[in-house]
Design brief:
alpha/beta, eight-stranded mixed beta sheet, Rossmann fold, two-stranded antiparallel sheet, 12 helices
Length: 355
């Protein structure tokens, strides 16, 4: 029997540490009991994962929920499920493909026409470590969906958000931003060898830089914007990672990995916290690791990079150069022109899913 004691002790210790670590990183449930009756919430990528659970929780709190998704069949099913479980009839599915500038503009136009106000915008949708696919407009899929799509959508809804003030914008970022680097000379991976991991990290760093620059431009408007890393969550987002592609990883590592990740329901709690918490009224331009405010990586604090990213992004998505959109310098115009003339065929369709 003694020969089994050491292995049993080892695995018991690993299991115990994993459970303790999981309890630590989950962050628990949103402590605020605030309701949001009369408020309109727009959530991208809300048919699954964190987005769906965020929609469910905010519907329970009385909000009017607009779920923006690419896959309308899944979105309608999710909206129906949420209406049934929360008894809130004001949960709606709307088409939104963040890999298409046309779709984003149509979605924003409909919201501005149909909704009296937009009180909370949650930029949740994302893709992670997919192959070298391109969006409908020729952008790298991860940079295009994770950053440019939400950049355009947020800007198109700014007037509505200002009219609805106090209002909030929540951008789902990731701890991956700490190893991200913005390559202004090749944002769309057209000159260098494509690295799906670095492409993802670049897009997540862009989320944090966008958050900080937008907060600066919205000072005094009553609109706040914050970024959040929700933790490690079991969602469809990781379907392109090696863990799901290797039989060894799936069979041997997955059980241990599952001990370290939290459910989409718990993953949504930091987002709900930023959306409803009374203590965050007026807080803007911050980065949250789960529900704790933290300083982001050094490169995410670079004000010049944030300003330049804003101007380049504004040109790439076709926003007018006036007011809050800022002005572009000559090098950025060249980058924009190159992006506009290069329009390769889009890769396989990608659903916008929660982080």
């Amino acid at each position: 029997m003694s020969k089994y004691i050491l292995p049993a002790s080892f695995f018991g210790t690993v299991f115990g540490c994993a459970v303790l670590l999981k309890n630590h990183v989950t962050g628990g449930r949103c402590p605020s009991k605030a309701t949001i009756h009369g408020k309109t919430v727009v959530i991208t990528g809300a048919n699954t994962g964190i987005g769906k659970e965020t929609a469910r929780e905010l519907a329970k709190r009385g909000g009017r929920i607009i779920m923006g998704c690419r896959d309308m069949e899944k979105c309608e099913a999710a909206a129906l499920e949420i209406r049934g479980k929360t008894l809130n009839p004001q949960v709606y599915a709307c088409h939104l493909d963040l890999a298409s500038m046309k779709s984003i503009r149509e979605f924003a136009k409909r919201l501005k026409q149909d909704e009296q106000h937009v009180d909370i915008l949650i930029n949740n949708a994302g893709v992670m470590r997919c192959p070298a696919w391109k969006t409908e407009d020729g952008f790298d899929m991860q940079f295009g969906v994770n950053h440019l799509g939400h950049f355009l959508l947020t800007n198109l809804l700014l007037d509505k958000l200002k009219e609805s003030a106090p209002s909030r914008v929540i951008n789902l970022a990731s701890l991956a931003h700490i190893i991200g680097k913005i390559d202004f000379e090749d944002l769309n991976w057209e000159k260098k060898k494509f690295d799906t991991k670095q492409a993802y990290c670049q897009s997540k760093l862009a989320n944090v830089l966008f958050t900080r620059e937008l907060a600066k431009r919205l000072q005094g408007t009553g609109v706040t914007v914050n970024a959040v890393h929700p933790g490690v969550v079991a969602t469809e987002l990781g379907r392109h990672t090696g863990l799901h592609q290797s039989q060894f990883s799936s069979s041997l590592l997955s059980p241990f990995f599952s001990l370290l990740v939290k459910s989409p329901e718990l993953g949504a709690q930091p987002v709900v916290f930023l959306a409803v918490s009374e203590e965050l009224e007026g807080v803007t331009g911050q980065y949250y690791d789960v529900m704790t405010e933290k300083e982001p990586a050094t490169q995410a604090l670079d004000e010049e990079a944030a300003r330049r990213l804003w101007e380049v992004s504004s040109k790439l998505v076709g926003l007018e150069e006036e007011g809050q959109y800022g002005k572009s310098n000559s090098s950025e115009k060249d980058q924009s022109k190159a992006a506009q003339t290069h329009r390769p065929s889009p890769g396989p369709a990608v659903s916008a899913v929660g982080l």
